[in-house]
Structures are given as structure tokens and as C-alpha cells.
Amino acid sequence: MLGTTILLAIREIRRHMLRSFLTTLGIVIGVAAVVTMVQLGNGATAAVQQNISSLGANVLQVRPGQGFGRGGGGAQPANFREEDVEAIASQIAGVRAVAPQTSASVTAVQNASNWQTTLTGTTADYFTVQQWSLQSGRVWTSAEETAGKAVCVIGETVADNLFPGSDPIGGSLRLNNVTCDVIGLLVSKGQGGFQDQDDTVIAPIRMVQRRFTGNREVSSIAVAIDERYDADAVQASMSELLRERRHIEPGEDQDFNILDTAQISEALTSTTTILTMVMAAVAGVSLLVGGIGIMNIMLVSVTERTREIGIRLAIGAVGKEVLTQFLVEAIVLACIGGFLGLLLALVLTAAGATLVQVPFMFDVQINLLAFGFSAAIGVIFGYFPARRAAALNPIDALRHE
Amino acid sequence: MAEPLIALKAVTKTFGSGQTAFQALKGVDLEIEEGDFVAIMGPSGSGKSTTMNILGCLDVPTSGEFLFKNLHVEQLDRDQRALLRRRYLGFVFQGFNLLARTSALENVELPLLYRGEAKSARHKAALDALDKVGLADWWDHTPAELSGGQQQRVAIARAIVTGPAVLLADEPTGNLDSERSVEIMELLTALNRDSGITVLMVTHEPEMADYARTIVHFRDGLIDRINGEASSSALAGAG
Ligand SMILES: Nc1ncnc2c1ncn2[C@@H]1O[C@H](COP(=O)(O)OP(=O)(O)O)[C@@H](O)[C@H]1O
Ligand SMILES: [Mg+2]
Predict the structure, then answer these.
(1) Are residues A312 and A365 in the same domain?
(2) With a 6 A CB cut-off, is B48 part of the ligand 1 pocket?
(3) What is the average per-residue pLDDT within A375-398?
(4) What DSSP line would sit under B115-126, residue for residue?
(5) What is the pLDDT of residue A70?
(6) A149 lies in the same domain as A244
(7) CB contact under 8 A, A317 and B97
(8) Are A162 and A31 contained in the same domain?
(9) Fewer CB within 10 Å: C terminus or N terminus of chain A?
(10) CB contacts < 8 Å between A and B, how many?
């Protein structure tokens, strides 16, 4: 009997292609939105993790502020000073290399092209600590570093945009009116996450401080730890040193943070996860609206098909069969909508992944979940119209115009 | 004499209640033998359709008894009556009432679907029924592609496809010209004669009623005459 009912439902759906399509549209869009959001979110999370793991193990990031990526209330905590960097390098055991960083947003100009990018001022150690290698050219010498020479190493994105088809090494570019010689080109780290890692210009910190930030502050410090030492112990002694240097009383909250790669990864991952969930919830609402759409059209369809229901009842259909037929129709419609939604999500995820540069991730679980949910919507929102159809009086229904 | 197939005993039907209550049937007694061909006539509003709806198990009397194969239909619930219709009855309506955008074959198959027949059996039975009404070649046409007479013949095929005991037709020729009407009446006569189906038909036209063996006249919610003889219920009502 159920087989027959499904057959009847499919016949009915086929007979009203346009109406059926419009009915399912809400579900299609809702399912596609939810699945795409979650899959892209997963992709973003994966990209973030990939990025962070490219920071390398045994590297600590020291930043002012209370938490990674979290803006605390109150006054902006002070940046570090160069003396802090020197103190870390000289007083903490197990530190292999220290790279102070300061950055500025700049417009890089070469001939007629210009490009908005981030300038990072640091020391030559930065390349070791952050595991950047060069595909051509060289890193600046310590003499150039101390002198604060206007030289820079650029990422591939900058090179592609300002030196298309030509070798950037030996060329020069203007960064906010400071002419800088390009001496090195970084190996691409690939794009991913929320930012393009190759969209960067790296220069001696002294030069950046003098000509861009106008102070001698350091906005963050990357510290590479000797593998033979315990990272937690090094982290603890660094924390102690910095508390002392920043005059933080015992028991008082510290106004800086030291995070290792795993901790950063955790913080960023939870951020993207929350973001994904919020977006998926918004998309979920549209799925619900899609369900109400199904109910609406099924109700209209019950009225429209009153005479048909009368014929079925006169022929000998019992109420339950009419109810099942309408319910199955709603479920089949919702499932077709769900399936089309999944297909659309596949396309959208692929397109979106390319667009925002995150890996394409197919999530079996969310696909199954969204499909199950659309079937459930069919049941819930199909029941009311179906019950109404089944309760019709055959004589009145037959007389209906 | 054998038990009648159908018996109405003092059947009344009242629509609405209180001030607006209207008694459409005022005590109808009627017996119909198996294999009969009955025409129900009478002025508009005299209760013909109300009686047909009760005989078709689509509606129940307000009081009185309705026996079908000695079964007290007035005591059955909605679903039981539906199963009775499915098993024993076929309907033909004035307005054809075919499913739109549905081929003749699928329309005729519909009652078989509710009987859970297998696809091949359904096809065969539906084609046979279409053949009986002379529309075997038209099986894949939708109602919009058929004339009124053809649509009514499809409707008759749908009504007989299950091999019912009774065919109920409320003004089956009401929407057709006289030539088509004669075709339909000849079809009903043939079905009655060859398949032994009991036919109950409402009609306004004496020419159509002439095809029937028994003619029942209604007046004001009562049976006035049967085959020209005054009915007992009419006498009782008059008395
Ligand atoms: N559902 C209903 N509600 C109220 N009155 C009705 C209903 N059905 C029929 N009637 C009334 O009952 C009377 C008999 O109707 P009907 O049996 O349809 O007459 P007819 O002999 O023309 O077929 C009419 O006066 C009609 O108005
Ligand atoms: Mg009538």
C-alpha cells in the first residue's frame, strides 16, 4: 500500500511540475545554505589550522593584550620595547631565535601599478622562526639591519602584482614614498584561511620603525625554542620576565600573552567554529521558512484539489489513505528539495572554496543531517494539510468548484 | 422471493438543525433487486441526489435503515463505508469528475490502486474496461483531449473496472447532447444485461428513463410512484 501511495504522490508531483518546483524551492535554498555554510566553515577551519601549522612547532608568539584575537576592555596594552626583545634573547635559557615584529599598512607602488599590502619590520631571524624560505635573492645582512637600510623581501602575491612577468630581484618599489630595493622573493606558502600569506613585504625592523611607525616599539615577538628544552618551562620563565619588565604585581592579570602554535590554533579554530555555527543557524532559519512554504502550498493544493479528493473518497479511499497520500507527497517534495539542495550545496561549496581560498571539504554528516531534516520538515508541515484533506466530506468535496 | 440487494426502510434525511433544519427525505421505503436497472425521476429538489448519496454509502440517513446485502449500512463508520464503496460500488457523475491532466488509462486504474492490485493486473483490467466502453484506442488521452461523451465513457470504465455489484449514476447524461446520451444509455443497458450489474440512475428525461426496468418517481422527499403504481410510502405519507 505504501508503494502505491508513493507512486500516487510521484504522479501528482509530476503532474504539477511548476507548482512542485516552487514548493521545493524554499527547501532547496535552505538546505543548500546550511550545507554550504558548514562546509565552507569547515574549509576555513582547516585552512586556519594549515596556516598555523606552517608557523612551525616550538614557536611562541608573544603579543600585548589578554588573549589571542580577543580585544579586552580598557586601555590598549602597551607594545613591547626593543629592550624586552634583548632581555628575552639574553636572559631566557632555551631560546633559539627571537624575531621582534612591527607592522604597517602600506601602498606599494611600482611603475604605474600599486598594491595595498602589509609591511612587516623584523630581524633576519624572522625567516628562521616563521619558516619562510626564499625562492630567489637573499635576506638582508646584519649590517643592513643595523643601518636600517631600505631593502625588502617580498611575497609572491606582491611580486605577481607589481612585477608581472619580470624578476623583482634588483628592482625597487615605493612604499608610502619610501623607495625600497627588492632583495629577496619568498617561496609561496600558498593561500588559505582569511588572509593571503604571500601578500607581504618584509623589511629590517629599524627601517620600518624609523620611516613608518615612527616609534621604537615592537608589536609582537616570535620566539623559537630549542627542541631540547621544555616549551612550557620556557613559556613560564618568559612570562615571569615580561611581568617584571612591565611592572605587573603578583596576582595582577598580565597584559600580554604568550601562546604556542597549538594554543593559537585552538583559539582560531573555536572562532571559526562559532562563526560557522552562527551562519548555519541563520541558514537553518531559511530552511524552516522553506518548510512553511511547503505547508502553504500543500494547503492551497488541498483546496485546489478538493474535487480530486472527493473522487478518491467516492471511489473508496479511506481517510487514512488520503492522509498518507498528501503526507507522502509533502515528504517526497521535501526530500526532492533536500536532494537538489545538496547538489546545489556541492556546487556552491566548490565555487565558494575557490572564491575565498579555502580547501573544499565535503562533510558527509551535515549532508545526511540536512537531508534528514528536510524529510522531517515534509512530515511536520505536510501533516496539517494532509489531515485537512482526509477529513473532507466526499459529497461536499465532489460538489466543490 | 430472494432477499433484495438494497432496502431502504423509513429513511429520513434532515440537513442542518434547529431553525434552519430541512427534511430532504421524509420516510423513503425502497427495495431493489439484484440485476435491476432503476431510473429515479422527479422534480428538482425532491430528494433524488440525497437518496443516491445514501445508496452510494457516501452519506447516512438521519433515521431509518439502509440494508445493503443485509448489512446495516447506517451503523457503519466512515471508513467501513469507504471499504464498502471500494468493494461493491461504482460511481458515474453528471460532471464526469475525471482527474485532470491524467490519461484515460490512469483514471480508470485509480480504483484498482486502492485495491492494491499489481501493475500488470491493473493495466489489463483498465484496458479491458476501456475496451468495454469503446475507448481502447484512447487510453493515453487526457480528459481535456476527449469529448464530453468520451469523458463520460471513461468515467463509466472507471466505475466498472473493479467489477462492482452496483453502478450509481446521478444524471449521467445531464451534460450531454441527446445523441451522446443515447450512447451512454446503451452502454449502461449493455452493462446491466451482459455483466449483471445493478444500475441506479437519476435522470430528468423520460427518454432516458425508458431504458430502465424500474422507474421510481420522487416528490417532496417521498417516493410518489414506482412504475406508475402509487408507492406504499407515498400512501403512508398522504395518509
Ligand atoms: N448538504 C445539504 N444541506 C442542506 N440542504 C441540502 C443539502 N443537500 C441537499 N439539500 C436540500 O435537500 C433537498 C433535496 O436535494 P437533492 O436530493 O439534491 O434534490 P434533487 O432531487 O434535485 O437531486 C433540496 O431542497 C436541497 O436544497
Ligand atoms: Mg440532484
Answers:
(1) yes
(2) yes
(3) 90
(4) TT--HHHHHHHH
(5) 47
(6) yes
(7) no
(8) no
(9) C
(10) 60
**Whole-structure pTM value:** 0.71
Domains of chain B: 34-48+87-238 (3.40.50.300)
What pLDDT sits at residue B78? 94
Q: CB–CB of A145/A204 below 8 Å?
A: yes
pLDDT at B232 over 80: no
Instruction: Using the mean position of ligand 1's atoms as its centre, give its distance from the Cα of residue B50 in Å.
Output: 6
Q: Which domain holds residue A147?
A: 78-254
Protein residue whose Cα sits closest to atom 1 of ligand 1: B15
The 3-state DSSP class for residue B21 equals: coil
| Bridge partner list, A204 | A122
Instruction: Give the confidence band of B164 by pLDDT, cuts at 50, 70, 90.
Output: very high
Chain B residues whose beta carbon lies within 8 Å of the beta carbon of residue A398: 93, 97
Residue A67 pLDDT level (bands cut at 50, 70, 90): low
Q: What is the pLDDT of residues B103-134, one digit of tens each?
A: 999 999 999 988 888 889 999 999 999 999 99
Q: Is the CB of B49 under 6 A from ligand 1?
A: yes
Distance CA A140, CA A153 (A): 8
Cα separation, A358 vs A352, whole angstroms: 8
- Side chain identity at residue A71, one-letter code: G
Alpha helices per DSSP H over A192-318: 205-208, 231-245, 261-304, 306-315
Q: Closest residue of B to A15, CA-based? A: B101
Q: State what percent of residues in chain A have pLDDT above 90.
A: 36
What number is the average pLDDT over the span B189-200?
Answer: 96
Which positions 154-173 of B are in contact with A (Cβ < 8 Å)?
A: 158
